[in-house]
């Protein structure tokens, strides 16, 4: 490992191994279940200074599963799922207070309504939340859902960045339309001071990512899963990865691993092996996250 200062801008954590294994459903390549102690151990071994917890709650899936089990009328079930999301947000913030090397981002869902979303942002910001994570494909909503408009405005006012899944969603390719880069056009235009980060470089729609990056200076990217050393062969060769990053702008791409699905140390090694200058690697591995995410 080199002497670069490293921030992993895309990880997920779970309260127990059982919950983490259930969430990953056997699809994690890291050999980890996603617990905080596992992550802290990897960070210590690999020289990762900070990790950003993008803990998303799959409200739609949980709601539909509860309804299928006959656990109550729709309104009651929907309310319980939002409360579960809020408890996970509170847990994420608590973990970060206990471990300063971990950075908390919270989850929102438009089904909670605009007033509740704004209240959740304000409360969790007081508890240390540093940003918001959305997964339009996994949560099955459009990023332009008007219930989210006040939440974007509040995030913009508070200077909280929003990270969203970007690009193809392998578990439900039809819902990938919600996460392709152009799906965020109206959001970027309506909130020009909002910092928006699309995960995975918008993989599957790289030309859209490039076009959007050229037009919207408040749009950034993380390279989790898209530029990974965990799974071989990689979806992008070293030369292709370096070219895409430079075309997007080396000052606009953040290193991320998507742990526990991918392995942060192997992914860091991949970035360090790319045909990029040390100054470019320094930006991607840590300096961009410090500036863009303010961590």
Low-confidence stretches: none
Strand content: 5-15%
Number of domains: 1
* CATH fold type: TIM Barrel
Rough outline: globular
- State the total count of DSSP E strands: 8
Fraction of residues in H or I helices: 40-55%
Q: How much is the average pLDDT?
A: 96
CATH homologous superfamily title: Metal-dependent hydrolases
H and E string: EHHEHHEHEHHEHEHEHEHH
Fold and architecture overview:
- By secondary structure, the protein is of the alpha/beta class.
- The chain has one domain: Alpha-Beta Barrel (TIM Barrel), CATH 3.20.20.140.
- Helix content is 45%, strand content 12%.
- It is built from twelve helices and eight strands.
- It has helices spanning 17-24, 36-46, 59-68, 74-98, 114-126, 136-139, 149-158, 185-190, 206-215, 238-248, 264-273, 278-292; strands at 6-11, 48-54, 102-107, 131-134, 162-164, 196-198, 219-222, 253-254.
- It has an eight-stranded parallel sheet.
- β5, α8 (185-190) and β6 (196-198) form a beta-alpha-beta unit.
- α3 (59-68) packs across α4 (74-98) and α5 (114-126) packs parallel to α7.
- The chain is globular, with a radius of gyration of 18 Å.
Sequence-ordered SSE layout with sheet pairings:
Layout: E1 6-11, H1 17-24, H2 36-46, E2 48-54, H3 59-68, H4 74-98, E3 102-107, H5 114-126, E4 131-134, H6 136-139, H7 149-158, E5 162-164, H8 185-190, E6 196-198, H9 206-215, E7 219-222, H10 238-248, E8 253-254, H11 264-273, H12 278-292
Parallel strand pairs: 1-2, 2-3, 3-4, 4-5, 5-6, 6-7, 7-8
Helix pairs in contact: 3-4, 5-7
């Amino acid at each position: 490992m080199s002497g670069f200062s490293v921030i992993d801008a895309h990880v997920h954590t779970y309260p127990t191994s059982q919950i983490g294994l259930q969430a990953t459903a056997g699809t994690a390549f890291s050999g980890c279940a996603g617990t905080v102690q596992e992550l802290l151990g990897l960070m210590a071994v690999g020289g990762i200074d900070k990790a950003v917890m993008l803990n998303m709650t799959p409200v739609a899936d949980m709601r539909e599963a509860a309804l299928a089990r006959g656990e109550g009328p729709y309104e009651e079930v929907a309310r319980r799922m939002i409360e579960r999301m809020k408890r996970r947000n509170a847990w994420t913030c608590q973990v970060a207070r206990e471990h300063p090397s971990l950075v908390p981002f919270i989850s929102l869902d438009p089904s909670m309504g605009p007033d509740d979303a704004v209240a959740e942002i304000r409360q969790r910001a007081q508890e240390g939340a540093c940003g918001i994570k959305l997964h339009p494909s996994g949560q099955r909503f459009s990023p332009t859902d008007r219930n989210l408009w006040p939440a974007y405005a509040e995030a913009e006012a508070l200077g909280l960045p929003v990270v969203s899944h970007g690009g193809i969603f392998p578990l439900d390719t039809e819902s990938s339309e919600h996460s392709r880069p152009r799906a965020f056009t109206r959001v970027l235009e309506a909130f020009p001071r909002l910092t928006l980060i699309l995960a995975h470089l918008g993989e599957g729609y790289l030309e859209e990512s490039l076009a959007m990056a050229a037009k919207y200076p408040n749009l950034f990217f993380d390279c989790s899963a898209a530029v990974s050393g965990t799974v071989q062969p990689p979806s992008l060769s070293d030369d292709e990865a370096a070219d895409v990053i430079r075309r997007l702008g080396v000052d606009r791409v953040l290193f991320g691993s998507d742990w526990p699905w991918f392995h942060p140390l192997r992914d860091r090694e991949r970035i360090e092996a790319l045909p990029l200058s040390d100054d470019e690697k320094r930006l991607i591995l840590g300096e961009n996250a410090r500036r863009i995410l303010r961590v």
